Predict the 3D structure of the following.
Amino acid sequence: MTALVEKSSSYVLGIDLGTTNCAAGIYKTGEPEIININGTKTMPSVMSVLKDGEILVGSQAKSRNLIAPESTVSSIKRHMATDWEKEFEEIPGKVFTPVEVSAEILSKLIDGILQNETVDLGGTPKYAVICVPANFNDAQKKATQMAGELANLEMLTLLEEPIAAAYAYALEKERVQTVLVYDLGGGTFDVSILEVDSTGNANKQFKVLAKEGIQKLGGDDFDQRIMKRVAGEFAKASNIDIYDPDKDQGITKEAREAQQKLLEAVIAAKHELSEATTTSIDIPNFIHDETGQPHHIDNFEITREQFNEEIHDLILQTKDSVEKALSAAKFEIEDIDRIILVGGSSKIPLVKEMLHEMFGKEPYSDTDPDTAIARGAAILGATMMLPDPELERPEEDTPEFVIDIDNIVTHNLGIEVVGGKFNCLIPKDTEIPAEGPVTVSKEYTTPEDNITELAIIVFQSSEDVEYVSSDSAKCIGEFFLKGIPPKPRGEENIDVEFEIDSQNLLKVKASSSSSSDELEIRESNIIDRQQRITPDNKSR
Amino acid sequence: MSATKNNISEDNQSLPDDEKAEEVTKAFQAFVMEPLQKVSLKIEGLKAELENRDDRINKLEERFKELEAKFDEICSHLKQIESQPSPVKADKEIVSKEPVLDIQGLIAQAKAEEQESIKDDEKSIKLCLKNAEFWLERGKRLKLMIKEAADATDDVIANSNEILESLSKELKKALESSQQGLNIIGRMLQRLVNQDDRLKSLVEEIELADNLKELEEDEWMKLMEGEMNENSAQKKINKNLDIIRRSNYKLVSKAGDLAEKRQKTWLDFIGKQVLPILDGIIDGKNPTSILIDELMEQYQESESKLSEWFNTYFTLSSTILTMLNDLGVYRMDIEPGMMIDFERHEPSSVEADPVMENEQIKEISRDGYEYVAHNGNRQTLRVARVVVIKNND
């Protein structure tokens, strides 16, 4: 008897697998459409394991963070391609890696999509384009790809988030522009400069010119600043510090509840200040002291100016990144035609003011900043050829154009050589043309007599560095080239070749006159510096 | 195995000679003659097949010769035609005769497809607009009810201030901070009404200006001008039908977005603007009840005034709850002891309690609310915040 085979959908999911939330969309009747998950456009990227081993994902999992923090994982994106792992008490013997947690999140995202009755995908989603931050290294990208595969998704490609946002913007209508994508989310900031040309009927051209970013800066930091300000004023008036349980004489539970109330009120005030110039926070019966007397937050006024003051230095940090990106692209302010805002925190007026002041023009904010990335990924997905030719989509759900992207290399890429020095093979910002990967090879020689084995240790760095021990240099993989014919020092040539494709995925090959080996930078290759061979016995 | 062999061998030794000979003959027949016969039959078959194959090759050769002759005949006929000075009229007619392109038929078919798609889109838009209209009405109703509730609470709070003023200095001082809480609640409600922007979004009328796109017959005709080839005409029709569908789908999405936006605005307004006011009342009511009990015992002469003053909390919460119930919003029915349900409850903190089970709700720190639609569908408007049991095993 033959088992029934599940029918696959011919639609390609565009997925924004965010640190805090994720979203998915498809391309339908000429435009990208976001698929609601349980009635909302985004789903929290959180996983939690119940007592019986059942896995919860999304808002329910997020709710469990307090009650069972040890069984709940959030912001897993920050741990991609690290040695993070977790064994949940509820599932003994099973160790979860970031790839597996991400795969669970993706699986539940797909379940949510399938439960949405308003979208007919014609089968189970099989193909996807998943977005990754521009500053993700090769190992992190590979790990994301593996998570997709583990969630039974066939990855057509990975797509960098700012590029996805640029697709969503540029394909709204025909445009020939140089755009700057300013992506300020809940926890990270990215800026990219791209040239877009969406006027061609058959080909839409995109070229990445520069990328910069700050790994830990976002809307959560703004909320914390305002909370501290309000709580500080409240403490002066009431002598109750909701942030210091020792000081508030043991009303820890109440203090925690007060913090939650305040966070909600601050977020509401922040949203209101996007429209209004002033708002006030009122929380009647905010907290009760030990005598039972209530204390209130009574008409705490915040003007937009005060809010701006609080977050000004953080916004200036993003400005520095924008300037760095401009200089990397060798551009002046006037070379930028459009500034595209992406991410929920980009709605803050100070962001718009800063960019307006800097560029002398209003940033573009017609594109929904919360879903732009998933929509861009959905557009790219729809233009791509499906590996299964039998799957057919309605004509109107397949664009008549293809997208060409010329990307650039995100980091300086090289190997460690004698003396712990970083030897760069592919510099940051090297162009990667749409038609093929960039290949660079260099010749090295053996550093000692009769060496038969050499460790090839691959590093990346966002800055120009001399030594691999520098802060910005990170080891992304290592392998041994064996079978080198024993010869006197310097007499045997070792060729090292780096090949990087438009997704910034790196392949490293090394060869001697009688042997060769190669390495694809995968998560499993990430190694701790301590575990590697020491400089003394290392063949350099 | 060896035992069986030995047995067989022992049995044979006991048979008479003639029977033995018969056995040997039978064995010879079975093991030698019969396979030999089979092999010879196979050889015969192969021989016959070879002969057949030869026959078939001969036949094919004959057929090939016939075809060669035919080919020569056709070639000479073609040469004859080429050498003719002018083609005969009949031949010319045959060459130039092409199927006539039925443009009218193709356009009729395109119109039918276009109309069918427009009909579907109209149906979807109608449904979305009906939904949007429903939420607009809800918005108008909510706006009106908020104004009524704000006016009613204004009176109630003014009354509570009057009672407080009439109390002794000590009582006034004891209840001053609680009264401040009540005043804040009144101001929060009034602000909802006075800052019209908050309520304006609820009743914002958004018009869908564009009509569904369709091409008139003469427009189709114009598009088809100069078309001679059926394939290319059909391609053109499909392309234009696609443009029409895409353009109309944008209107369907716009109508859907409108309904979704109005519903979201309505639910957000309740969740983020109205419920925090109700929370404030409840957060004040529970701890103040302990204080009131103490004060009543201490100042028995003021018992009725204190009771009337404390009643303000009940009147306020009941005014707002009645309004919410009228709008289909209900408080979730949660009791301590229930197991936490992560779809409806959110832990605000954890506590150990050996007599209770892990993940049991110990207390409710903030009420949860749900919206119940006319068809009975329940939607969580805001999860309840609860204190949950967590015992260290």
In short: The two ends of chain A are 61 Å apart (CA to CA).
